[in-house]
Design brief:
The chain has about 400 residues and is α+β, with helices and mostly antiparallel strands. The protein folds into 3 domains: about 100 residues, no CATH class; about 80 residues; about 180 residues, Ribonuclease H-like superfamily/Ribonuclease H (Nucleotidyltransferase, domain 5, 2-Layer Sandwich). The protein has 12 helices and 15 strands. A hairpin with a 2-residue loop joins strand 5 and strand 6. Helix 4 runs antiparallel to helix 5. The longest helix has 21 residues. It is globular and about 75 Å long.
């Protein structure tokens, strides 16, 4: 690992705050220099992950991949290098003068890193027993509906944010807990919604190791959705296709009148007419995901399904699987639950409205160019198989 000597430390060459070492990294990184920043590098930029030091270029040929968090490193090495390769690396770092905390070093397929247990060969992560011994009783106390102080809830939320780094599904379940925390002024018992979420969080932790480092591969299926309101009519529409560059006549599509669809009414009860479009656009993304995942079947496990929306806020919320708004947060909880149940993951990105004309056309009940035989009914004869959304809405209504 190459480094730059500074007054009090040696800084890694992959730190974007270092000037004159790798201008490509600097150009593709947020200008703000904070120690705990994570840098996402697109695959097309991987070839630029080299360092230039005194007119020489240094290329990393030792590791298959490397995870860095401030000064904590976890590297996956070629098995053929074995103990000799690891010893050579440590000797090299020592010769460079890198400060090494020897008691933290470990070699093996299962290691502890940043407090998590990590299985390198499987890419799986889980919590150590001593961490679970703290978290489970706190969640069980919440599930039981016992009295809580604001300090207890704040402490638990901090721990759950840490857990969410290993179990991404946890992130989508935290909004109601934050909302409850903000209202707490004295000791109080949690409502049914918070208690239900505590049950879900316990089940997530008890489900065993999570695999957040899945090898991603996109499915051959992709699509887009939209929602609109015009002249008293509220509609959701979307399309998806198993092939690249399809014609309008080839895509599978849906279009629904929201106000006349019975199963949507509980969701509408949680939104005001002036603020419901954002929630309905997110509902359109969820419907599109369910239809597309169903068409893929079980053969595409761990695949990522590219979906688009012209709502930039929803695309951002979906990418981090959390929202501060209700019922958007409930819809994201359902999306997260469906993803882990089906083994297919939504990759939601934003497109400009001018690039979302087909979905926009369907929200105006304009079916010109679409094949009637490719329509998927999501209105009267269709009932979504919600995993948790109906319970979330019911508990919220009782508050």
């Amino acid at each position: 690992m190459a480094g730059i000597q500074e007054l009090d430390k040696i800084r890694t060459i992959f730190d974007a705050s270092v000037i004159g070492v790798n201008d490509n990294i600097r150009a593709n990184t947020d200008k703000k220099t904070t120690a705990h920043r994570r840098i996402k590098v697109l695959k097309k930029h991987w070839r630029y992950m080299v360092a230039k030091i005194k007119k020489k270029f240094w290329v990393n040929k030792v590791f298959l991949w490397l995870l860095v968090f401030v000064d904590d490193f976890m590297a996956v090495m070629k098995e053929s290098l074995g103990e000799l390769g690891a010893a050579t690396l440590m000797l090299f770092l020592t010769l460079l003068g890198c400060p090494i905390s020897w008691h933290k070093n470990a070699l093996g397929k299962v290691n502890r890193w940043l407090g998590y247990m990590v299985n390198i060969s499987e890419g799986s992560v889980w919590l150590p027993e001593e961490k679970l011994a703290i978290l489970r009783p706190a969640l069980l106390k919440l599930e039981a509906g016992e009295l809580h102080t604001k300090k207890e809830v704040t402490s638990l939320l901090g721990k759950l944010q840490w857990v969410a780094k290993a179990y991404p599904q946890v992130s989508s379940h935290l909004q109601p807990l934050y909302a409850w925390e903000q209202k707490l002024e004295r000791k109080c018992r949690p409502g049914d919604l918070v208690r239900f979420l505590a049950t879900l969080l316990v089940s997530i932790l008890d489900s065993g190791p999570c695999v957040p480092l899945r090898l991603q591969h996109n499915t051959p299926c992709y699509g887009s959705s939209d929602a609109g309101e015009d002249d008293g009519r509220v509609a959701i529409g979307g399309w998806f296709s198993p092939s690249l560059n399809p014609t309008k006549a080839e895509v599978l599509w849906f279009s629904m009148d929201v106000l006349t669809t019975p199963w949507v009414q509980p969701l509408l009860a949680h939104t005001s007419p002036k603020r419901r479009i954002g929630a309905l656009e997110l509902l359109g993304t969820l419907i599109l995901f369910l239809l597309a995942a169903e068409s893929l079947g079980p053969s595409m496990i761990d695949a990522h399904l590219p979906l688009t929306t012209d709502n930039e806020g929803n695309a951002f919320s979906a990418s981090k699987r959390s929202s501060k708004k209700w019922p958007c947060s409930a819809l994201l909880m359902e999306l997260s639950a469906q993803e882990f149940h089906k083994g297919v993951f939504a990759q939601v990105t934003h497109v400009k409205r001018s690039s979302n004309t087909w979905a926009d056309q369907l929200t105006h009940f304009d079916f010109e160019g679409f094949s009637p035989g490719n329509r998927r009914d999501v209105s009267l004869s269709w009932s979504p198989s919600w995993m948790i959304l109906d319970k979330l809405l019911a508990f919220k209504s009782e508050q």
